[in-house]
Design a protein that fits this description.
The complex is a heterodimer of chains A (135) and B (341). By secondary structure, chain A is α/β, with parallel strands linked by helices. Chain A has one domain: Cobalamin-binding domain (Rossmann fold, 3-Layer(aba) Sandwich), CATH 3.40.50.280. Helices cover 44% and strands 18% of the residues of chain A. In chain A, helix 4 links the parallel strand 4 and strand 5. In chain A, helix 2 packs across helix 3. Chain A is globular. Chain B has 341 residues and is an alpha/beta fold. Chain B has three domains: 45 residues, no CATH class; 231 residues, P-loop containing nucleotide triphosphate hydrolases (Rossmann fold, 3-Layer(aba) Sandwich); 34 residues, no CATH class. Chain B starts with a helix and ends with a helix. The chains are: A alpha/beta (135), B alpha/beta (341). Chains A and B meet through helix 1, strand 2 and helix 2 of A and helix 2, strand 3 and strand 4 of B. Bound molecules: guanosine-5'-triphosphate and magnesium ion. Guanosine-5'-triphosphate (GTP) binds next to helix 4 of chain B. Guanosine-5'-triphosphate binds next to helix 4 of chain B.
Chain lengths: 135, 341
């Protein structure tokens, strides 16, 4: 019997910005790469995201942020994940992130930061490397 | 996972620790020896939850309804576990699990646990491990467990076997949809829900369903014992005859209308099952079927371990060439395996 372990990814959209086209495109690409993607929809609070990550036992959380509020949202999510004992969960951020914020996000432990126009295959590969490298 | 780690996780999950619960669900979902060890440890703690299945065609509003039901149970101060199943893509093996979108309001309630599950190739609306995930939630103390199926709209006996109460969700629609109901779905329904009652045609849908139930009751007993396929002595005593006629209820999940009535109907069904002896009967049948399944699987595994692979392959070739028939071939293999033991 094949008992390959599936990579589980939570794709979440924190904050109040309006559309989730980008998040959906990424979700589909990850599905097509054989991953199980839990998609939670718009306007998620950091608490909702951390709770979902916990209940769904995901390997990866992908945050899609277009609103510019990443410097408040990302630290909050990372903090909650840590409080829940989920420091093993890899966090990726996609959206519009100015270059000057990248080092700070990296410092928080964000594993990958992807702007518009990133090749989907790069994201797939980064997630695979992160998760499989850990096992 | 080593044994002491597993024992810790099980103890934590039984005490309600959500991280441990999530981990154990992943373990049972993964299958294999570890899953069996977890399940055998939690089994003594299961059997307390009321498991409610929610099935129906895609888009009928199952997830929205599950969220409303969960809110209603929380008002009664009951804790709620949710297992929501979505299909795995046969092409990539991946899945997008989107049922949580409709359960946004429940996300931070510490007495609600939501788990999304992909079918991972299993047919019939559930994943292979859906019942096992529900058992983990049951053991962890969740009082009501809501299981949302994929909603293929057919051959969904699996959910009816697993759940104590099965809701079949319909919505007002064209004539063909009413046709689709006939294909066995009425037999598994304990309660029929016409959701989206705000849309035109809800009353007609209710009337059509009632008429169909009338037709059905003429020549079939409502007889859930038949859901299970159990052999000979395992089947046990007389089947309880029963006379539950599935009520047809209207809801508008989007506005939270009709939910109280639905919750009452679910409670009434549970009470009916207890009083009629059907509850005991189904518990018995479920256990018998499970034992039968495990026996079959374990015996086959043991047997296959003892018979050399080449012997099996040769036998298959003989059968194909009509040199041997499969019946005596099987007997010969079993006899040979016994001699080897
Ligand atoms: N008009 C109306 N729309 C509803 C009602 N309940 C749910 N919907 C809508 O129907 C659509 C599907 O709802 P879901 O709850 O996702 O349906 P589902 O059966 O879980 O769908 P799948 O899981 O994809 O099979 C959504 O757009 C809901 O907002 C209702 O009572 N009235
Ligand atoms: Mg759904």
């Amino acid at each position: 019997m094949v008992r390959e372990r599936k990579i589980r990814v939570l794709i979440a959209k924190p904050g109040l910005d309006g559309h989730d086209r980008g998040a959906k495109v990424v979700a589909r690409a990850l599905r097509d790469a054989g991953m199980e993607v839990i998609y939670t929809g718009l306007r998620q609070t950091p608490e909702m995201i951390a709770q979902a990550a916990l209940q769904e036992d995901v390997d990866v959380v992908g945050l899609s942020i277009l609103s510019g509020a990443h410097m408040t949202l990302v630290p909050r999510v990372m903090d909650l994940l840590k409080q829940m004992g989920l420091e093993h969960v890899a966090v990726f951020v996609g959206g519009i992130i100015p270059d000057e914020d990248v080092p700070a996000l990296r410092c928080l432990g964000v594993k990958g930061i992807y702007g518009p126009g990133t090749a989907l295959s790069d994201i797939v590969q980064a997630i695979r490397q992160e998760v499989e490298g850990r096992e | 996972m080593d044994i002491s780690r597993m024992d810790d996780l099980v103890a934590q999950a039984l005490a309600g620790d959500r991280r441990a619960i999530a981990r154990l669900i992943s373990t049972v979902e993964q299958g294999g020896a570890e899953a069996r060890q977890v399940l055998s440890r939690i089994y003594p703690h299961t059997g307390r939850a009321h498991i409610v299945g929610i099935t129906g065609a895609p888009g009928t509003g199952k997830s929205t309804l599950v969220a409303e039901l969960a809110k209603a149970y929380r008002k009664q101060n009951l804790s709620v576990g949710i297992v929501a199943v979505d299909p795995t893509s046969p092409f990539s093996g991946g899945a997008i699990l989107g049922d949580r979108i409709r359960m946004r309001d429940l996300a931070t309630d510490p007495n609600i646990f939501i788990r999304s599950m992909a079918t991972r190739g299993s047919l019939g609306g559930l994943a292979r491990a859906t019942a096992d995930a529900a058992h983990v939630l049951d053991a962890a103390g969740y009082a009501v467990i809501l299981v949302e199926t994929v909603g293929a709209g057919q051959s969904e006996v699996d959910i009816a076997r697993m759940a104590h109460t099965t809701l079949v969700i319909q919505m007002p629609a064209s004539g063909d949809e009413i046709q689709a109901i006939k294909a066995g779905i009425l037999e598994i329904a304990d309660i029929i829900v016409v959701n989206k009652a705000d849309l035109p045609g809800a009353d007609q849908a209710v009337a059509a369903l009632e008429a169909m139930l009338d037709l059905n009751s003429g020549h079939t007993e409502w007889h859930h014992g038949r859901l299970f396929q159990i052999e000979g002595v395992l089947a046990g005593g007389d089947q309880v005859k029963h006379s539950w006629r599935p009520p047809v209820l209207k809801t508008c999940a989007l506005r939270g209308e009709g939910i109280e009535e639905l919750v009452q109907a679910i409670a009434a069904h549970l009470q009916y099952q207890r009083e009629s002896g059907l509850h005991q009967q189904r518990e018995h049948d479920r256990a018998a079927e499970q034992l039968q399944r495990i026996l079959r699987y374990t015996l086959l595994e043991q047997l296959l371990e003892r018979i050399p692979k080449h012997a099996l392959q040769e036998t298959v070739e003989h059968i194909v060439a009509r040199e041997q028939d499969p019946y005596s071939a099987a007997e010969a293999l079993i006899a040979q395996a016994r001699l080897l033991s």
